[in-house]
UniProtKB/TrEMBL annotation:
Sequence ranges assigned to domain Reverse transcriptase Ty1/copia-type in this UniProt record: 83-208
PANTHER family: CYSTEINE-RICH RLK (RECEPTOR-LIKE PROTEIN KINASE) 8 (PTHR11439:SF517), GAG-POL-RELATED RETROTRANSPOSON (PTHR11439)
One Pfam assignment: RVT_2
Basic and acidic residues bias: start-end ranges: 10-19
Region named Disordered: 1-35
Domain of life: Eukaryota
Species this chain originates from: Tanacetum coccineum
Protein name: Ribonuclease H-like domain-containing protein
Length: 440
């Protein structure tokens, strides 16, 4: 992963207000919705210049002056023509994009490197939590026609766009200097462009490799930690699902339908201390009898990282299962500690809570006894961190173990209690107003 971090000693400083010289339009004019703009004379004139029909091909588009204007703006070959609509299904813009036939490209001939690294969701949540902690405003930036700004390193040619063929040279083709939508190297080209720009402005680039996790999780688990354990369990049977597994998946959807407004709440003004909880379910996998591990990490009261996964080892005892889970949770804490150093935080004696006193005793004992020598070497990683004073282990009773919901199925009352304890709230407009007043 590549993350870009502003150095501390820089000519740039945080400001409370955005510079007015960089604001387009009248700053004193209130924000207008599209519904309000419907009565604006200027917007009415704009609507007359937008085509409400969606052309199916180039021939139909060339008969419509609005589409011709949209195509001239792109000045490429358009394989996709569609209308952009608002929430009322009113056409607000004609979108025309040239899409190259990237499926015809072959590796080693048309491109060499494709991977474009992206930010982990934990890094995004750490950033949002830090913003809430400092009461900073967040500005979102969008780049128009992003992929058209990435310079190509390879030599790529495309045919002249239909409707824009040069009559003097109809047999010639275009030599692309920058990427197009559809090219397999387009994401990588834009990433290199953005990366070089940020580095030129004083940002630094850190590289970190992360292990891939077992199974695939649904997209909603990035913002709904309450369904992680259930989704993780169902994902194990994607290759050989049965009617029983399908029934459980439907139960997850019914739960989501009844809790559609649930989400994480990051209150401002709370602390920013890094704490973690670790739990294990001995022989939690009914097929392989391997460990099911659950771990969560907080910044103050803000939950920023969570996981529920099946470990690739079989524990001989409950204590061994908890010890393996502690090591896995410690690794995630060390990763977050490294990321938080970019924000100026250098955490030591990080509290890590576990509900097994035996596992804590093994982690704090540097001597390898005969009953622990069979444990894989990589799980002894936590001993070094405890010895160095980076991690401090604390015992927590099972009823207060917040990671319990990430390892096993629970009763309804127990589950609802833990959902609220990890910081999830019903984010309806009325509830948001109450939460805002509480944290003000």
């Amino acid at each position: 992963m590549h993350t870009f971090n502003q150095p501390q000693d820089s000519e740039y400083r945080w400001t409370k207000e955005h510079p007015l010289t960089q604001v387009r339009g009248d700053p004193s004019k209130p924000v207008q919705t599209r519904r309000q703009l419907a009565t604006d004379p200027e917007m009415c004139m704009f609507a007359l210049t937008v085509s409400t029909s969606e052309s199916k091909n180039i021939k139909e588009a060339m008969a419509d002056s609005a589409w011709i204007e949209a195509m001239q703006e792109e000045l490429y070959r358009f394989d996709r023509l569609q209308n952009k609509k608002d929430e009322d299904q009113t056409v607000i813009r004609n979108k025309a994009r040239l899409v190259a036939k990237g499926y015809a490209q072959e590796e080693g001939i048309y491109f060499e490197k494709l991977s474009a690294l992206v930010t982990r969701l934990e890094a995004v949540r750490i950033f949002v939590a830090y913003v809430a902690h400092k009461s900073f405003p967040i500005y979102q930036m969008d780049v128009k026609t992003t992929f058209l700004n990435g310079p190509l390193k390879e030599e790529v040619y495309v045919a002249q766009p239909d409707g824009f063929v040069d009559p003097d040279h109809p047999e010639k083709v275009y030599h692309l200097r920058k990427a197009l939508y559809g090219l397999k190297q387009a994401p990588r080209a834009w990433y290199d462009k953005l990366s070089n720009f940020l580095i030129s402005k004083g940002f630094t680039k850190d590289q970190t490799d992360y292990r891939s996790k077992i199974g695939s999780l649904m997209y909603l688990t990035s913002s709904r930690p309450d369904i992680v354990q259930a989704v993780s369990y169902c994902a194990r049977y994607q290759a050989r699902q049965t009617e029983k597994h399908l029934k459980e998946v439907k139960r997850i959807f019914r739960y989501l339908r009844g809790t559609i407004n649930m989400g994480l709440w990051y209150p401002k003004g709370s602390g920013f201390e890094l704490t973690a909880f670790s739990d294990a379910y001995h022989a939690g996998c009914v097929d392989t009898r391997k460990i099911t591990f659950g771990g969560i990490q907080f910044l103050g009261d803000k939950l920023v990282s969570w996981m529920s996964k099946k470990q690739d080892c079989t524990a001989m005892s409950y204590t061994e299962a908890e010890y393996v889970a502690l090591s896995a949770s410690c690794a995630q804490v060390m990763l977050m500690r490294t990321e938080l150093q970019d924000y100026g935080f250098n955490y030591n004696k990080i509290p890590l809570y576990c509900d097994s006193q035996s596992a804590i005793a093994i982690s704090c004992n540097l001597v390898q006894h005969s009953r622990t020598k069979h444990i894989h070497t990589r799980y002894h990683f936590i001993k070094e961190q405890v010895e160095n004073g980076i991690i401090e282990l604390y015992f927590v009773r099972t009823e207060y173990q917040l990671a319990d919901m990430f390892t096993k199925a629970l009763s309804k009352d127990r589950f609802q209690y833990l959902v609220r304890r990890i910081g999830m709230r019903c984010l309806t407009p009325a509830e948001l107003e109450v939460l805002t007043n509480e944290s003000a």
